[in-house]
Design goal:
The chain has about 210 residues and is mostly helical. It has helices spanning about 20-25, 35-50, 75-90, 100-115, 120-130, 140-155, 160-175, 180-190; strands at about 55, 65, 175-180. The radius of gyration is 19 Å and the shape is globular.
C-alpha cells in the first residue's frame, strides 16, 4: 500500500493537534476477512507446494514470510502460490476464475520489459517466462501464466483445501499474526505438507485425492 503525505517545503509534514496524534497512534490496524482469506490462500497452497512458512500476518501490511532455503525449482509452482491469494478470497463465494486475457498479456509484457514489482501478478508473470523457457515466445509465457492459475483453481475447489483456507483465515482474524509452525499445524489437519508434488516427478499433483 502506498501512502501519500503532504507537508511544507522543509518536508515537516502537516501540522496535527495533540489529540489527533494520540488518536492516530492509538489506532491499531485490524485484520479484515478478505485480507485473512488472501494470506491464508497463500499459506495453504504454499504448504501444499512444499514451502516452509516463517509467519503469516493479516493486519497492517498483510503478507506471508517464507523461510529461506530450498523449495522447488519449478516456476509453475511459484505461479500457483502467487495466485493463491486471490484463490483464498474467491473461496468465500466458491466462485473461481482466472484473470482476464488482457491482464495476462499486460503483465507478461511488463515482465518482458522489466517493468514489474513484487505484487502477486508481477511475480506470476516473471515465473511464467521462466516456466516457458529462455527462448520462449510471448504466447508460451501467457500459456504458463494461465496454466498456473488453472492448477490453483483445480486444487482450491477441493473441499479440504477450502476448509484449510477458512480455518487458517479464522485463526488470523483472532490472532492477526501466526508463527509458521502453528500455521503448518492448522493446515496439516487436512492437507499434508507437499501434497501437490509427486516425489518422483516434481509436477503439480492437482488430482490427488
Amino acid at each position: 500500500m502506498f501512502v501519500e503525505t503532504t507537508g511544507d517545503r522543509n518536508n515537516r509534514g502537516p501540522e496535527l493537534s495533540s489529540g489527533a496524534v494520540v488518536e492516530t497512534l492509538a489506532t491499531k490496524p485490524r485484520a479484515s476477512w478478505p485480507a485473512a482469506l488472501h494470506e491464508a490462500g497463500h499459506g495453504v497452497i504454499g504448504h501444499a507446494c512444499g514451502r516452509h512458512i516463517e509467519s503469516i500476518t493479516a493486519a497492517a501490511q498483510p503478507h506471508v514470510r517464507w523461510a529461506p532455503g530450498q523449495y522447488d525449482n519449478l516456476s509453475l509452482f511459484r505461479i500457483v502460490v502467487s495466485f493463491s491469494g486471490q484463490i483464498g478470497e474467491m473461496s468465500d463465494r466458491r466462485f473461481y476464475r482466472t484473470v482476464s486475457e488482457e491482464v495476462e498479456a499486460d503483465f507478461v509484457d511488463r515482465a518482458w520489459e522489466g517493468k514489474v514489482g513484487r505484487c502477486d501478478l508481477c511475480q506470476m508473470a516473471i515465473h511464467a517466462w521462466r516456466a516457458a523457457g529462455p527462448d520462449a515466445e510471448r504466447g508460451a509465457a501467457i500459456a504458463a501464466f494461465r496454466q498456473g492459475q488453472s492448477i490453483a483453481i483445480e486444487i482450491a475447489t477441493m473441499s479440504r483445501y477450502r476448509a484449510a483456507i477458512h480455518r487458517l483465515a479464522r485463526a488470523l482474524m483472532e490472532e492477526e499474526t501466526i508463527e509458521g509452525s502453528r500455521a503448518h499445524e492448522i493446515i496439516a489437519e487436512t492437507i499434508r505438507f507437499g501434497d501437490m508434488v509427486f516425489e518422483e516427478e516434481e509436477i503439480p499433483n492437482a488430482c490427488k485425492a
